[in-house]
Prior knowledge:
elongated, 6 helices
Amino acid sequence: MNIDTEDMISNIESEDKRPQVQLLFKNLKKELPRLKKLLKECHWVYENKVYRFYHSSFKVYMLQGYTEDILSALRNLLPDTELNDYFTLIIEEGTGKEFKREDNKQWLEITLPILEAFFHARYFLEMAVKYGKELKYPPNLLPSGWASLLYLFNLR
């Protein structure tokens, strides 16, 4: 084995020492109980509000509050860091809506962004909980979900 290959293997197996990644990981471990609780609350919400979408019920609009709660919890992990532009756009398009009767005529156009924002927020919450529990340190060899979290905070 030559030196370059040994260095490469060493880097793959080692910890990501970048300060922002270390801070994210530290805060993730600290906030893990709160994140787990929020994820548990979202289980019923997920099941019920997706049903409400197919039932064409205005109650699907309630997902926005949960999306904002998740967003707040995620932002707290690295409060001074801008979140991923795609994620930010998805959240903006799927929050801040108030039900109006005429929304029923454009149900899919109006409510799909609400669901999409919740799904993306919930995905990142799930990844935060999963890797907050599983990882002992932030690795250089990235599981896809951890890599997604790094993208959320523009660290990948």
